[in-house]
Here is the input.
Amino acid sequence: MQERLNNLHAFMVVAREQNITRAATILGISQASLSQIISKMEHQLGIKLLHRTTRSLALTEAGEQFITLIGPAVEEIQRGLNQIIDTKNKPSGTFRIVADDFVIHSLFWPKIQSYLQEFPNIHIDVVSDYGEADISKNHCDAGISRGDLIAKDLETVQISAPVKMVLVGAPKYLEGRDLPQKPKDLVKHVCINQRLPKQGGMLYTWKFVEKKREVKIHVNGRLTFSNMHHVLDAAIAGYGLAYLPSALVADAISVGDLLTMMQDKCVTLPPYFIYFPSRLRESIGFVKLLDVLRHSD
Here is the structure.
């Protein structure tokens, strides 16, 4: 079909210019190729469209009728094709994406700002949810979660490196206290807990590595949050130790609001992935979004 549309367009240019050489230049093809296109059309239609001599070119009566009948339609189709190509270069649409606040703040938002500037017709609807990695429940197009929590029937694209956890505390909390040297020392400290809606509301178990073995510690403290940013704020305020992703606490550490401990014993969690149904691969705008979010080593 595309070849026929191209041939019809070529004939329209020849009819308008009344000159094979000029028409070939406009179309960006050789004169010989253009002559072959016209001859092929005449053969397929069984009618003569052009009177051609070495010096002149003119439409036959059948050629003029052909132009009258199909000319407007060909021009309309060409305009439509140009619009489609333009749409490809300027994607539009709305993508509803569910993720938790840590992901939105640390992994998603920093990457998509350039994307939003490049594609002004794209709308992003972000749903903050610490619940299960379930896009259907939130009526979302896609979601972001750790790879080990995502259903196997969805497509995924990795958007982060493995997540290094960091044990931190504020100088005001640590003043006068012994720094923990090993995981079991944490039972003597006030710690800030995090509740995990994705795991039925249970408290996050702090995991460490000691002598190449995983050690799990259930910590105690006065405060429990389901949002990591609230845990971070409480830690900076001096209400206890916190165990958080390095990307979340990096700024607070750099300005001295938090100090790190037991770095050699903190675990590294699986990376985060954006997950989505395969049909979204057909959306140019979504594929462009994947390219922006995709993690590169």
Notes: The chain has a mean pLDDT of 86.
